[in-house]
Design a protein that fits this description.
With 296 residues, this protein is an alpha+beta fold. It contains eight helices and twelve strands.
Length: 296
């Protein structure tokens, strides 16, 4: 599957970030595939990761990996977004000519739930297949979504020694910025969240993200992004992102030094209290506890 768009490029970047974690699935993903087949009373189930032009089967129940079927249906599920159901593959334009549909084992039914990262990128799907056309019940699809969520949870907490998961909660704060090892700067922002101190019972929004080897994370108050540049314009989130991308900090300490230099350069343009917190993961393979922490 090749979709030349910024959205697909962002999705593929997420696939690459998690690639080291899904290569050795162990028993956890195998159990997910077996449970999916049992819930649907179907003979076949898989857990797949969809790359650019390849699909990796990281767990399978009952069905040996067959690339043609995986590319036609699993890739379509990722493009579709949300639960994806093909009640009769003979009538599906992407699968009707596949050998495993008209030949052995004669796949007719397909259902998938997306494996979605905390920042909303689809890595792949948990898939169920049957040899007869049929419908998928609401409860079955709900269970399939839960299984896909379990796969994502397992990827987040898997101790590969080269990274760790981060859970962020916000009450109207500016987005955290992940500075990736390749130099990319990505906002991590929970959807929603209400301002603290204004509403009596504010609602906190939450999002999970992963920091891999060489990644860093910056959290900051809005005193930084509301600072004025020498031209009189507000620095804002785009300005901060561009500054970090140009500086290329590689650790929590470097990130704090970069922000300190920025605040110094802005001078009187910083008129509000400003606090920053930085986290980073060493580039070498170490235990998760060896990450560094800096604050100012």
């Amino acid at each position: 599957m090749s979709l030349a768009s910024p959205a697909e490029a962002s999705r593929l970047a997420a696939v690459r970030r998690y690639a080291a974690l899904e290569t050795s699935s162990g028993a956890a993903f195998d159990r997910v595939a077996a449970l999916a087949a049992r819930i649907f009373r179907a003979p076949f189930a898989t857990v797949t990761i969809v790359g650019d032009d390849t699909v990796r089967v990281i767990a399978a129940h009952g069905l040996p990996p067959r690339r043609g079927l995986v590319e036609s249906l699993c890739a379509a599920a990722v493009r579709h977004g949300g639960p994806y159901v093909v009640e009769d593959a003979w009538l599906h334009p992407h699968a009707a000519g596949d050998p495993v549909v008209h030949g052995e084992p004669g796949i007719r039914f397909y259902a998938a739930a997306l494996i979605t990262t905390p920042d909303g990128e689809a890595l792949g799907s948990v898939n169920v297949m049957d040899v007869r056309p049929r419908e998928a019940g609401d409860e079955e699809l709900a269970c399939l979504r839960d299984l896909a969520g379990l796969v994502m949870d397992e990827l987040e907490v898997r101790p590969d020694g080269d990274g760790f998961g981060v859970t962020l909660a916000t009450g109207g704060h500016p987005p955290a910025l992940a500075v990736r090892a390749n130099g990319a700067v990505e906002p991590i922002h929970p959807a929603g969240g209400q301002l603290i101190g204004i509403l009596r019972d504010p609602r906190f929004a939450q999002v999970r993200a992963r920091l891999n080897a060489g990644d860093a994370l910056l959290l900051y108050t809005d005193g930084l992004t509301e600072a004025r540049t020498p031209s009189g314009s507000m620095l804002d989130e785009d300005g901060l992102t561009a500054y970090l991308a140009a500086a290329g900090p590689t650790s929590a300490d470097d990130l704090l030094t970069t922000v300190h230099d920025l605040i110094t350069a802005l001078g009187a343009g910083v008129s509000d209290d400003t606090a920053v917190l930085a986290l980073s993961v060493p580039p070498a393979t170490r235990t998760p506890s060896s990450g560094s922490l800096g604050a100012a």
